[in-house]
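Hey, can you fold this one?
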Amino acid sequence: AIELLPTENPKLMNSLNVALRELAKPPEHNRKARNYFNMLGLTLVDITEMMYVLVFYNTSLDPIFRAELLTVFRLSIDTAQPMSIVQTLFKLSRLPSDFFLTSTETMNILISKSVTIAPSLSPISLTLLYACLSRLSSRYFVCAAIETVNKRILRELPFSAFSSHEIVMLLESVARIESMRQKLKTIDVQAHQSIIHSVVSMFSTETSPELASRLLIFCSSRVQEYTPSMIAIILNATVILCEPGSKVQRDLYASVSSEICRQKDRFSSMQGKEIAVILSAFESFLHAHNESLGVICTAICKLKYISETQMAGFLYTFATLHFRSDEFLRFASAHYDRLEKNGYQPDNVRKALCSFVKLKHYPPRCLTHFFHCHTQLFDQESIEEITEALSEARMPSSVTHGSTCLV
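Sure. Predicted structure:
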C-alpha cells in the first residue's frame, strides 16, 4: 500500500505507520524469543516483498524489530529457493547503501550463495543475477561469483538459449564491470603501483574477456533481432570491451550499419538517447557508412526535443566522421535559433561552432554572437580554437580574452 498510495494522505499514512509499529512490538513475554518472526512465518520472499516499505521506515523502525528481522533474513538465505536469492539481490542492488538489510555481512552471504546456485539457474535467472552482480561490483567483491556465472554460460549454455533481450542485458553487465576496472586503472594517486594493480585485479576475471568477445560475435550475426535501443547498448559495450579497430568491433559496426540501411523506417524513428549512444560509438570507431549516417540524420530531424548538449554532440560527431548532410545542417541551424532565448553552455558553443565550420556550413549568428559577447566564459584554448575556425570561415573574430559587449 505504501508503494502505491500517495504520501499526500497524512491520515492514511499515519494509520499505516501505527500498524507497522504494532507489528514491530510483540508482546513483552515474546520480546526476547528468537522464534518470534518464525511464528509469523516470514520467509526470504516475504521480506524481499517488504523491502521498499521497510526502506520507507528505515530510520524509525523499532530496534528489536530491525534486529530480529535481520536475523531471520540471514537464516532464511540458507533455505531459500535459487530464484528467491536472485530476486533479493535484484532488489537490494537498487536500495540505498545505508539500508539496514544491506550490511556488508549480509550482502557477502548473498553473493556467496549466488556462487552455489549459479549451476542450477535458468538463462533468464543467470542474466538477472549477472545484472545484479555488475551493479554491486563497485561496493562488494563479486568476482568469484562473476567467474562462476561466466563458466556456466561459456561451458554449458549456448547463446541461442537466451532471448535477444537477455543477450543484451548480459553484454551490458559485462561492459559495466569492465568500465569500473578501466576507471580504476586510470586512478592518478601517489601510491605504489602494486597497490593499484591489486585493486584492479579484484575486478578482473579470466573468463570475462572470452565471454565478452563471444557475446559480441554472436550479436554481430543476429543484429536483425535487436531493437534500436538494444543496438545502442551493444555498440556502447563495444567501446568499453573492444580494442579500437579490432576485427570484432569492425564486423559488428559493419553489421549494424547494414541493418540501419536495411530497416530505414525503423531506425529513422529512433529516440534521442538511442541516437546519441549510436553516434558516440561510431565516433569512437572513427568510421561509419554514409548511408547509415544519413538514416540517423533523418531520425534526428524528426525529434521533437533535442538538448543543447545533444545537438552539439551530434554536430561534433558528424564533423569528426567528415559526414555532411545539408538537411541536418539546416535543421541544426534552425534548432539553435529556437534555443537562443535559453542561453548556451560555452563548451557546447565551442563544439558547435567548430563543427559547423568543419562541415563547410556558416554557423548560426546566435552562436557567433554569444561567443563575441561572452568571451570571458571561455578558456584560452577554446578562444584560440574558435577564433581559428571563424578565421577559416572568413568571419569576423576580433575578440580578446574577457571582452564583453552590451546586448
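Residues 305-407 form one domain. Let me know if you want another pass with a different chain boundary.
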